[in-house]
Amino acid sequence: MKLNNMLKGIGMACLLGAAAAGLSGCGGSGSSAQKTFTIAYAPNESTEQSADARGGMSKDLGKALGMDVKEINASDYNGIVEALRTKKADMAYLGSEGIALANKRMDGNVDVIAMKAPGGDKAKAVYHSVFITRSDRSDINSLEDVKNKKMAFVDPASTSGNLIPTGMIMKAFPEDHLNAEALHVNDGFFQSAIYSGKHQASIQAVAKGDVDVAAVSDQILQSEFASGNVQKDDIKIIASSDPIPSEGMIIRADMDKDLRAKVTDFLLHYDNEDYFTKVIKVKGARFAPASLSDYQPIIDLNELLSK
User: Fold this and answer.
1) Could you give the residue ranges of the DSSP H alpha helices within the chain?
2) I need a labelling partner for 211 at 20 to 30 A (CA). Which of 74, 111, 130, 236 fits?
3) 295 in a domain, yes or no?
């Protein structure tokens, strides 16, 4: 009887321990059995037009991993970083500045496993920040013409929609002794300055005349032209940045090694054109191998401008 009661006690302790620790069983290896993998996307990739393509990729990844894959569509870049930091997301698709932000807030516990590249060629894994205005604005033809205008940035953590254009304006107007804060207030260098939330919204704001100038990703601009959301003849580019490292898939550096290997292998071999055209916004793009070091110049620039 005593032995029977003791065995029952051990069995109950095992069940309670497994439930508390999230283990698949008692007496196993002690590693948690992850059942769901979560990807976080920014507003630019979370459009209704790309919902089916994102869902298709999640389904394909789920088959490769043998677990459910779900999405988090964050309202801004800060939300994505926080989801990664608190382990509510396992992976996120972020631009260079978002990666720099995650690296800072997560004390370096991040890595990049793949980056967007035309044809999968890493040498072409770059894009540009462009300043745009309406084609009929004869008074705005270069970066030197943006002072005292209505300006739209994208998001504080956007590379091509904030970090790079901020640096470009500061460089173009050395006599104004500008800093980042001075460029993001009303009735200062600009008549008004806003964050639109996503590149598409900035492009529409320019097209409709709600703002005079906006800084956006050249690839998203071309995608908007291709989709017919804005007419190419209505928009002109007045300035373009130097090349910027393409967006990448970022994970926590402490991810399980086997899981990391499976996810990386999936991304580097994924070739669903619908996903790359509608979600990644570059027809013919694929993922190329990447690491955090590919984004070091942006990490350094972010540190410089934040001082």
Assistant:
1) 2-21, 51-65, 77-85, 96-105, 164-172, 199-208, 218-227, 257-269, 273-278, 296-305
2) 74
3) yes
For residues 127 and 190, the answer to whether their CB atoms sit within 8 Å is no
pLDDT in tens, 147-156: 999 999 999 9
pTM (2 d.p.): 0.75
Between 220 and 4, the higher pLDDT residue: 220
What pLDDT does 201 receive? Answer: 97
Contacts for 99-105: CB closer than 8 Å, 24+ residues apart: 99/248, 99/250, 99/292, 99/295, 99/298, 99/299, 100/163, 100/295, 100/298, 100/299, 100/302, 101/77, 101/157, 101/302, 102/250, 103/292, 103/295, 103/299, 104/299, 104/302, 105/81
The DSSP element (H or E) to which 252 belongs, if any, is strand 248-252
> Do 108 and 156 share a domain, yes or no?
no
Same domain, 114 and 141: no
Q: Phi and psi dihedrals of 300, rounded to 5?
A: -65, -40
**Three-class HEC string of 206-250:** HHHCCCCEEEEEHHHHHHHHHHCCCCHHHEEEEEECCCEECCEEE
